[in-house]
Every structure is written in structure tokens, then in C-alpha cells.
Design brief:
The strands form 5 sheets. The protein has a 7-stranded mixed sheet with strand order 4-12-11-10-9-5-6, with helices on both faces. Strands 13-14-17-16 form a 4-stranded antiparallel sheet, covered by helices on one side. It has a two-stranded antiparallel ribbon with strand order 1-2. It is built from 14 helices and 17 strands. By secondary structure, the chain is of the alpha/beta class.
């Protein structure tokens, strides 16, 4: 019986009750349909299979099915089996309240932070996935190393050394579910080290600030100017979170003097620098600025991600840790790496050169978009200054004082989603506010780019 139960039909949970087996089964099935647990069109197990599962005679199940077919709860057709009827009585429980209507989706999206998802290299990724699954040893599907698959860590270590100047071996690299996941792990490490305060850039992602705050850490803002974050204002912070290659969202690189100063501060005080290299591959005027981690691997944590180069939905990121922190990061219960098959696929994608080819192609496409944006503004809105365009997937449009919210509202009226610079301002910073738009030119698919530019031009003063 155990073997029969394990191999026959589809599973169906029922608990027949009542004075007789047939009636009890009929009532249980009717209740499951009436309450919506068995939805219209659901195929039921064969009478033989359900009888074996419940330990009943097959005729008992067949008779119960026949009763419910006669009542209209079920249908039975030759070749299609027994199914829940399409028209059944209303569920006994009231339907849940309808959600409020969502705001209409914008026709065009120029919010920063997302690449052109329509350009994801599906064919190459599928080839890499096929090769990865074929070559993967059986043991790869187990729990494995908490740092992630060795194939991916090795491929990433080589790539980061070659492209970003990162100094590491695979043993100090930890695969995580994106930058946010990495920051959650680092927050636990910082608390264990007795750190209470983390310096952050006065303009930056509130999501990252909120993660640190929820972890029990206090964030203090560093002023940001044309030379990047003012690393001379670190005060008593035990760590600092920076975007040195391309400050988000202002778009300026950290000045060489400030790069040297923050590394000196970390070496002198034992502080930790958290380097968010979110879009370091995309530099248009010259070779990308090298990773800060290369100056001091003992005091800088490098955070990278595939969210901008490939797609955020992959949830693939990585941290290069000082050797002394690897064990602490792995001790955190939240240190769970992404799915093994995705890791192996990315390893294949990197090793085959497909990643390099995709990044170079994307870099060319985004540069053309940037150039079109600058040209359109020069022609139709010459008074609007454009900054932060040497790298990345977004630009900052300087607006007349007091007009930012007005322009954001006008953009929405024209079906365009766009963020103002004030959205990224630290609530406790004393830096004077600036009116500007942060325009993500990487987000729209190619077919929507011209329309997005037209909408932007109409919204500008």
C-alpha cells in the first residue's frame, strides 16, 4: 500500500467525516469546492488513486464522485477525468475587500537605478545556463560553501582584478543577493566590532541608509560637492559608506586627495570603508576609475552587483572582504547565497567572455543615449545644466531654484516618471538643498527613448 500511495495520481488532502464513508467523503469534497479550496477546473485524482490514498474501496470514491457530478459540483468526461465544475456555488467566506486602484503606470520611465531590461542577453544567458547545468557536479546542488560556489568566486576574483583593480583571492569573496543583502551582513559585522555610527554621503539611496538604521546603527551625513564626499568630516564614525567611482546620485568621482584621505583614516583609526561600486563598468570619457579597495584591501569592503550590468531581478551581488571579516560575515544567519544554478550560470557567463561583450555593447548604447540627452537639452532647454555624465546610467539636470517639485509634477502630467534630487538628500544634512532632476537614461527600452526625451523636454521650464 505504501508504494501504491507514493506513486499513483495527484495529491489531494481530504478528511472525510460523518456517519458513513461515502457520505463523509462526499461532504468533504463538496466543502472543499464550496469554500474555494478546490478551484473551478481543478482535476481530481482518479477514483482508484484517491481510494488508495484514503484507504477506501474504489466503489466508495466512484459513488461520491457520481453524487457530486449529479449535484453539479463536479464534471466527468471521457478522456479528461473528473474536474471541479466551472460554475459552482459562491464561497462561504466573503471575498476580500478590493484593493484601492493603483496609480496609472507612466508612459515613460526616467527614474535612475535600472538598466534597459529589454536588452538582457537572453540567448547568451540561456547558453551559459545550459553549459552550467550540464557541467555541474551533483555535489554542487547541496548546501555548499557559505561564501558561494567556488566557480563563481574564482571567476569574479579574476574579472574584478582585471577590470576594477580589486586585489583579492576567491577565498575572501562572498556571493550575496545584491548590495542591500551585503549591507545587512556588514551591519551585523559592524555591530559585533562595536561600531555605532556609520558616515554616509549627504546625497544617496535612502534604502541603504534605512537598512543601516534598522540594524541599530546611526548614520551621519558627509557633505557632497564637486569633489565627491568630504572624507575629512568623518568625525567619530566607525565606518563610512561611499560610492567613490561615481557618486550616487550627483555623478562625480571621489577626488584623488579624498580617496587617499579616507584610506589613511581607515588605516589610522581601524575604521572600515564600505565601497559601493554599483555601476563602475560604465565610464565614457576614459578608463573607469579603479576600485578604492585596491589601495587598502585590509580596510575596504568592496560591494559589487549585476543589477546595473545585467538585471536587478537576478539578485546577484558580491562582497570582497578583508580576510579578518570573512568568518564574521559567515556567522550571520542572514548569510545565505543566491541560488546555485544562477551562480554557476554567471560563472559560465563571465568565463566565456559573454559578460565582457555584453558590458561593452551596453556601454556603447548608453553612451549614445547620454549624447542624445545632452544634445536635446542643448537645443530645447539651453539654460538647464547637465552634470554627472562622464559615467553611469543617469545624469543630473540643474534647475532654477525653487522649481524642482513643479518640474516633477509637470513630468508626471506628461506621463513621465522622474525623481528630483531632493529625494536622495539625507534628512539631517546641513548642506544647502539644490533643485535638480536625476534622469536615468538607462531605463527605457530603445523604442521608448525618443518619446521619453520628448516628454522630458515638455516638462522642463
Amino acid at each position: 500500500m505504501a508504494e501504491t500511495w507514493a506513486t499513483l495520481g495527484v495529491d489531494l488532502h481530504l478528511e472525510p467525516t460523518g456517519p458513513g464513508l461515502r457520505r463523509g467523503l462526499t461532504d468533504a469534497l463538496r466543502e472543499a469546492v464550496r469554500t474555494g479550496r478546490l478551484t473551478p477546473g481543478t482535476r481530481l485524482p482518479s477514483s482508484r488513486s484517491l481510494a488508495a490514498d484514503l484507504g477506501l474501496a474504489r466503489n466508495t470514491v466512484a459513488d461520491a464522485y457520481a453524487d457530486l457530478v449529479a449535484e453539479g459540483w463536479l464534471t466527468a468526461r471521457q478522456g479528461s477525468g473528473t474536474r471541479v465544475a466551472e460554475r459552482v456555488a459562491a464561497p462561504a467566506h466573503p471575498a476580500p475587500a478590493r484593493r484601492p486602484a493603483e496609480h496609472a503606470r507612466p508612459a515613460y520611465d526616467l527614474r535612475p537605478g535600472t538598466p534597459d531590461l529589454s536588452s538582457f542577453p537572453r540567448t547568451e544567458w540561456l547558453r551559459a545556463a545550459r553549459r552550467a547545468v550540464t557541467a555541474a557536479p551533483h555535489g554542487a546542488l547541496g548546501y555548499g560553501d557559505g561564501r558561494g560556489r567556488p566557480e563563481l568566486r574564482s571567476a569574479l576574483a579574476g574579472y574584478l582584478a582585471r577590470v576594477r583593480g580589486v586585489r583579492t583571492g576567491a577565498e575572501n569573496l562572498l556571493v550575496c543577493g545584491g548590495t542591500a543583502h551585503g549591507l545587512v551582513l556588514l551591519a551585523g559585522v559592524l555591530r559585533a566590532r562595536g561600531v555605532h555610527t556609520v558616515a554616509v554621503e549627504a546625497y544617496g539611496l535612502h534604502v541603504h541608509r534605512d537598512l543601516l538604521t534598522r540594524a541599530g546603527l546611526r548614520t551621519v551625513p558627509l557633505p557632497v560637492d564637486g569633489r565627491g564626499a568630504d572624507t575629512g568630516a568623518l568625525g567619530d564614525a566607525g565606518a563610512v559608506l561611499l560610492t567613490p567611482a561615481h557618486q550616487f546620485p550627483t555623478g562625480v568621482p571621489l577626488h584623488p586627495e579624498r580617496r587617499a584621505a579616507v584610506v589613511d583614516w581607515a588605516h589610522r583609526t581601524g575604521g572600515l570603508v564600505l565601497e559601493d561600486d554599483y555601476d563602475g563598468e560604465f565610464r565614457y570619457d576614459r578608463q573607469p576609475v579603479g576600485a578604492l579597495q585596491g589601495l587598502d584591501p585590509e580596510h575596504v569592503v568592496y560591494l559589487g552587483t549585476a543589477s546595473k550590468s545585467l538585471a536587478p531581478g537576478l539578485r546577484l551581488g558580491w562582497m570582497v572582504l578583508p580576510p579578518s571579516l570573512v568568518g564574521d560575515a559567515l556567522d550571520d544567519p542572514a548569510s545565505r547565497t543566491p541560488g546555485v544554478l544562477d551562480q554557476l550560470t554567471l560563472a559560465q557567463f563571465l568565463g566565456s567572455g559573454a559578460y565582457d561583450r555584453h558590458v561593452r555593447s551596453a556601454r556603447l548604447r548608453y553612451r549614445r543615449r547620454r549624447d542624445a540627452l545632452v544634445a536635446a537639452l542643448a537645443e530645447h532647454a539651453p539654460d538647464v545644466g547637465v552634470t554627472g555624465i562622464a559615467a553611469g546610467l543617469h545624469a543630473v539636470l540643474q534647475l532654477p531654484p525653487g522649481t524642482e517639485q513643479q518640474v516633477v509634477r509637470a513630468a508626471a502630467w506628461h506621463g513621465l516618471a522622474v525623481h528630483g534630487l531632493s529625494m536622495f538628500r539625507h534628512p539631517h544634512t546641513t548642506v544647502a538643498p539644490r533643485d535638480a532632476l536625476v534622469v536615468g537614461y538607462g531605463t527605457p527600452p530603445d523604442h521608448a527613448w525618443t518619446g521619453a526625451l520628448d516628454a522630458l523636454r515638455r516638462a522642463l521650464p
